[in-house]
Amino acid sequence: MAKAMRPGILDERGIKFLGYAGKVSAQMPLFYNPAMQINRDMAVLLLKAWGEEELQVCDPLAGTGIRSLRFLKECAKQIRRVDANDVAPSFMASMKWNIKRNGVASSRISISSQEASVFLLQSSGYDYIEIDPFGSPNPFLDAAIRRLSRRGMLAVTATDTAALAGTYPAVCKRKYWADPLHQVWMHEVGVRILIRKVQLIASQYDRGLRPVLSYADQHYVRVFFRSQKGKSSADEVLALHGAWRGAGPMWLGDLWDESILRKMRVPNDWTDAARLIEVLHGEASVPIVGFHDIHDLASRHRQASLPRMDVMFARLKSKGYRAARTHFSGVGIRTDADEDVFIRLMQ
Ligand SMILES: C[S@@+](CC[C@H](N)C(=O)[O-])C[C@H]1O[C@@H](n2cnc3c(N)ncnc32)[C@H](O)[C@@H]1O
Questions:
Q1: Superfamily of domain 8-277
Q2: Which of 127, 147, 203, 215 could serve as 55's disulfide partner, Cβ 3.0–4.6 Å?
Q3: CATH top class, domain 282-346
Q4: From 87, 112, 219, mutation site for ligand 1 pocket: most ligand atoms within 8 A of C-beta
Q5: Which residues contact 344 (CB under 8 A, 6 or more apart)?
């Protein structure tokens, strides 16, 4: 039998909590991945930028509970109460220690240890629900959408990127009802396929869910959706589903709401989040599906010399095209110039 792991005191953004250091795996008694700090940073920044107050928040797959603790400490003005839940057997005991250690008032947090969908369905609903599972969010979407308030926000993380980004197309088809793409656009297409899947579940309940912030990072994709209740909202969202480059169906609408990105104020030392938000902000100003990847185009068009990115931006802008870097590729440019124009400008 594996040696029993003992919890220690960890720290994230100044909050002390119980967890396990060392190799990250789903077998940890309380799951914590320090590399996902940016995922939690983005949620904190978005909740602050959203502009709503008195929010009822649900963290049904809470792991160590660090996300809930951060929400309560860092979004004190925005959040009235967080309900944190996880099936891990040691969750309740360690969360009690965390709550005491961090001086969280009992009126601001409740903790429980149930299956996440059961937990959600027994609740009276939330303004913000965070679905952060191992792998696919599919098992939790229905309950989360049913318990999301009329104009609530749903945050979804998916770590099964091998399916969404086309390594396993049959899995993508089975789980996300769409054909992925295993080319340079695979992560953007994966994000758009995930968005459509969430929107389809929502449309069953006459809800339109629109992404306000989407990105792919490391081994996961992440989308924050704002809900609008009503048949016409759902229909308007469904009208924006379609195929692109032979993949899909997928969401072909906007991936970002510029007005929210503009309000995201990043602390000076949160460099990863700052860099990501800066690029997303640029991308949001060019609301086009896909991008041109200089390496991919050079190889497909047998062009030996590659222009520098800044040179391409200057050429595109001098011809009146919009252009921005994309976080989906280090050598990608999101632009309204089509591929023929782009290739000519590369030469
Ligand atoms: C990726 S971890 C969550 C990490 C956490 N949100 C964070 O930010 O650190 C997924 C968590 O879901 C829990 N879990 C898995 N299946 C569950 C279920 N059906 N109901 C409730 N919790 C579940 C696991 O115990 C694990 O802690």
A1: Vaccinia Virus protein VP39 (3.40.50.150)
A2: 127
A3: alpha beta
A4: 87
A5: none
